[in-house]
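hi! just following up on the protien thing from before. the input was this:
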Amino acid sequence: MRVTILSTSDIHGYIRADDFRRPLLNDGLGLSRVATVIEDVQKNSADDEVVLKIENGDFIQGSPLTNYIEKTAQDQLHLYEDLASAVDYDVRILGNHEFNYGREYLERAVPSAKLLNANILDAETLKPFIGKPYDIFHQKGVKIGVIGLTTKFVPKWEQPDHIKGLIFMDPVDVAKQYIAILRPQVDVLVLAYHGGFAEDLKTGEALERVTGENQGYQLLQLPGVDAVVTGHQHRKIAEVVNGIPTTQPGYRGDEVGMISLELDADRSVTAAMAELISTADYPERADIVKLIEPVQKPLDLWLDREVGTVGDNLEITNHKLARLHNHPFIELVNQVQMAATGTKIANTALFNNEVRGLKNEVTLRDIMTNYIYPNTIAVEKLTGQDIKDALEVNARYFQLDANGALIVNPLFIYPKTQHYNYDIWSGIEYTFDFSLPMNHRVTAVTVQGVPLDLTGEYEVTMNNYRAGGAGNFPMFSAGKIVREVQLETSELIGDYILEHPHISIAQPTNITSVGYNSVTEELD
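and the predicted 3d structure came back as:
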């Protein structure tokens, strides 16, 4: 007989086949398409086949829809549970972004009936603060155990008041504990982990800085495990590693992960397969579309409110050049951050290549599809040396090819695209020489025409994600934060445009880049 494990991860509130951008639109995604795939697999399953369905976290945050519900329509919070029930998930897992709106909101949005959470504990009881650590499913004579795990790195990013009273245990240690309990009771044991892989699945060699954020490789090595479902990185993975299948199904519902386990008469696993099913060619399921109808019209009206005008030069046509030379749209975000905090230096990132900047007439939709994260901002007191060290980290984003042309460092593309970990600064002037070795590329930094004082102190505004040091910036830390603004940056951008009805931002000239022959156009 066969056990089939279907999984989605990182839906991020993309329910319809719609990424919310206008006029550009990606519609090859969405929970409404996912639901059709899952229904199709179930309909075509064999009589003795067991199909288990896992929603692997980051379900309630990450789109204009989720922002709308949190800000103006919390009476519709039940939609998340209604949607999960309509898809008929057997298991749900907590993602790191489930905490973005706070613990109380999370507990209302993700009721605990099907939630598995083994490693996030209440500090007082030392038990899962919500959900249960594992469950056993008895279907067609087979006992399937599932342990739910979440990356332990949540405290590195999340606002402290959102996770107050919670302990994030190491998922590998916790998995070992529950495998010992569960393995004797089940025929099949599955780990559902909202986290990914820091190592190459075949060789075990590190693909990125190994921090403990992504421990999927370590989970695959644990004895007694039959399958590992992952997420968090938004990668597309379907592999069998030393006989253990694992999947990671992208994000926004563009793929469904499918693991197939063949069992013999003794209920032992004899073979395993892993694959991804693209949802783009499947129609939206009508009942999912109907569920979202009560919020669709008010959401669109909310998004399409005109906020103001910003001039005709804030659209982005070449992301690589925008990152290399700075861009008026990036400068606008930094100006907003500096105005909100009273600093003269700020940094921000051009998060991905779907960001297209702003046309002259700006709507809330434009802002929210360009600044896609629910970041708040923080001010850190940094030394000049801290600033220079951070710029050296930024300088790793580019490298030279064999012909001396400037390209994006593949480490920022594979195994996971990480454009959001390259910051562009405002309020300082700096020079990169890409002919020099990494960590020695920053050749000049000035602040208002004066050379950077490496021992002096400066206040710098950045988003809360970066302020915790995320993205390989150890010179930033929570201990250096001197003040914060607890409003989402997208909201600050909207307010700033309203308050400045005739914004005009020239092309910034504060970044000088030398040491290369040309700039390639790939990966833009």
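DSSP finds 14 helices and 28 strands in the chain.
The first strand starts at residue 2 and ends at 8.
cheers
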